[in-house]
Write a structure and sequence with these properties.
Structural class: alpha/beta
Keywords: Glycoprotein, Signal
CATH superfamily of the largest domain: Glycosidases
Number of domains: 2
Largest sheet: 8 strands, parallel
Strand order of the largest sheet: 12-11-10-6-3-2-14-13
InterPro entries: DUF3459 (IPR022567), GH (IPR017853), GH13_cat_dom (IPR006047), O16G_dom_2 (IPR045857)
Bound molecules: 1-deoxynojirimycin
Shape: globular
GO biological process, one term: oligosaccharide catabolic process
GO molecular function, one term: alpha-amylase activity
Family: Belongs to the glycosyl hydrolase 13 family.
Length: 576
């Protein structure tokens, strides 16, 4: 995944390669417009639940399964098609659960396997699919395999499940190569008292597995089956571009490895060998009834390579992170929409649209900044010592963005709290921060805690109703009272009610299955038709003219002047 100088340049090149001229201006989401269960993932709205921050049933300050179950009616009413749950497996939580100690056990902190099964059953009963997170690149250092590896000698089968190497230098006192960890510092830790080191592309507590070892492959196929047998509808695959490392583990061609920590290319990323793994997983998934899906979290360059992950015999979707990184400019959005659809069309896969997740600055805060700068990139949170966003502007833009994004053909992700217009906690003090990225860089990188703050459900309750008591694992800013679900329920113009209406109309007008046809509009305005709707978003500050006789179905803000679309506002019109 992630970040920085290298990423910024490769993205610029990729965007410059916009394929729109090659493919013209109208794209079908899918040759098949008939919606069947087989095709559910081609147009679905998938809601990301970050379990530790969604809802806390037992009052220990950390969200859990019972919290999620209690809020299923809320999600149902919101109108989403599917849920994606970030990891809830047994874990010491060194990276908020992306460090798994047992892939088959629900961490007691979150509940039990029985509770998960209840959640699944109740979500299914409400017509919502459920996908779970799979973390195959690394385990926790507390996983039984890694513990066995530490107790076994170099060269043993136990060590062969991970990537152990002798250190350099006379006594092995230097790391085997210069690879940096994505989270800061070296990607290697030394086994105490030995010459050997182990590789961890992320935290020291996340040793990388050796995917050249058939035992690792066999084990993960069993893990897939374990959750498929329980009825999950698929998997979000963490660090899908990282499993295979180039043979030889050569040094990066740079002195300062850290600079390259988030690069998309290099001997550790996007090696062709990963695809054999996903093809074998596809075969496993296809042995189960109904359509079980995989979605790739893959940061690759050039971005055409993303299509390799979504070929018909591999995964079903890949997150479109470049959409999330787009600056607030009509031309930039038009380019990314065109190039995204053109790219996925080359392999017949649906396009995905993502504006926030648990690794990135929440959209209302991102678009409330004067300069997006590096904050467009994951991990680059906003902290008390960095420029603060304009909250009102950011919210206004995020509401308009929701109306753009959810009008596009394809599948869309909503990150919990997005439907509330929830901002980042941008002033959280360092003493509360828990992200390994913040800790390993000694606060030099703000990290991701700001977008992971527990949700506000009730404005006047302790912990804003996150749990029964006042505990929350990260502090909530006072402003969250304004965003609480109960405050928004009754307010006709609230962001929550806007999202509900968007999702209802999207469904009724089959926008996810539709076709996009651009319509000429002014410099700052994007306009397109999808089915019987015309969508306009004004990303500038000056009001723009609406087509004559417009019949407005929905607008992201009140329209004070007849026939005008104010700046930072979107509308859906009924086509006549
Ligand atoms: C990507 C996940 O989204 C992120 O939260 C995690 O820290 C890394 N992968 C490592 O698993």
């Amino acid at each position: 995944m992630f970040r920085r100088k290298f990423l910024a340049t490769t993205l610029a090149t990729a965007v410059a390669l916009s394929l729109s001229s090659l493919y013209g201006s109208a794209y079908a989401a899918d040759a098949t417009t008939v919606q069947s269960d087989e095709n559910w993932a081609r147009n679905s709205v998938i809601y990301q639940i970050y379990p530790r921050s969604f809802a806390d049933g037992d009052g220990n300050g950390i969200g859990d399964m019972s919290g999620v179950i209690s809020r299923l009616p809320y999600l149902d009413k919101l109108g989403v098609d599917a849920l994606w749950l970030s990891p809830f497996y047994k874990s010491p939580q060194a990276d908020a659960g992306y460090d798994v100690a047992d892939y088959r056990v629900v961490d007691p902190m979150f509940g039990s396997t029985e509770e998960f099964e209840r959640l699944l059953k109740e979500a299914h009963a409400r017509g919502m699919k459920v996908i779970v997170d799979l973390v195959p690149n690394h385990t926790s250092d507390e996983h039984a395999w890694f513990q066995a590896a530490l107790k076994s000698p170099p060269g043993s089968p136990e060590r062969a499940r991970y990537i152990f190497r002798d250190g350099r230098g006379e006594n092995g006192e230097l790391p085997p190569n210069n690879w940096p960890s994505v989270f800061g510092k070296a990607a290697w830790d030394r086994v105490p008292g030995e010459k050997q080191w182990y590789l961890h592309l992320f935290d020291s507590k996340q040793p990388d597995l050796n995917w050249d070892n058939p035992e690792v492959r066999a084990e993960f196929e069993k893990v897939l089956r374990f959750w498929l047998d329980r009825g999950v509808d698929g998997f979000r695959v963490d660090v899908a571009h990282g499993l295979i490392k180039e043979k030889g583990l050569a040094d990066l061609p740079i002195e300062e490895g850290r600079e390259n920590a988030g690069a998309l290319v290099g001997p550790m990323w996007d090696q062709d060998g990963v695809h054999e793994i996903y093809r074998s997983w596809r075969k496993v998934l296809d042995q189960y009834p109904g359509k079980r899906i995989m979605v790739a979290e893959a940061w690759v360059s050039p971005r055409e390579r993303l299509t390799h992950y979504i070929r018909s015999d591999e995964m079903d979707q890949a997150f479109n992170f470049e959409y999330l990184m787009t600056k607030w400019e009509a031309g930039a959005f038009k380019d990314i929409i065109n190039s995204s659809m053109a790219l996925t069309a080359t392999v017949g896969a649906p396009t995905t649209w993502v504006t926030s997740n648990h690794d990135t600055v929440r959209a209302p805060s991102r678009y409330g900044l004067k300069e997006l700068g590096a904050h467009a990139l994951p991990g680059n949170g906003i902290g008390p010592n960095t420029p603060q966003p304009d909250e009102a502007l950011g919210l206004r833009r995020a509401r308009a963005l929701a109306m753009l994004t959810l009008a596009l053909p394809g599948s869309t992700y909503i990150y919990q709290g997005e439907e509330l217009g929830l901002p980042e906690h941008t002033t959280m003090e360092g003493k509360y921060r828990q992200d390994p990225m913040f800790l390993r860089t000694k606060g030099e990188e703000v990290g991701r805690d700001g977008c992971r703050v527990p949700l506000p459900w009730k404005a006047d309750a302790p912990s804003f109703g996150f749990g029964p008591g006042d505990k929350t694992w990260l502090p909530q800013p006072a402003s969250y009272a304004r965003y609480a679900v109960d405050r928004q329920e009754g307010a006709a113009d609230s962001t929550l009610n806007l999202y509900r209406r968007i999702l209802e109309l999207r469904h009724d007008h089959k926008l996810g299955d539709g076709k996009l046809q651009w319509v000429d509009a002014g410099k700052d305005v994007l306009a397109f038709d999808n089915g019987d709707l015309r969508v306009l978003i004004n990303m500038g500050t000056q009001a723009a003219a609406l087509p004559e006789g417009s019949q407005v179905l929905l607008s992201s803000e009140a329209l004070p002047e007849a026939g005008k679309l104010p700046g930072n506002t979107a509308v859906w019109l009924k086509r006549t």
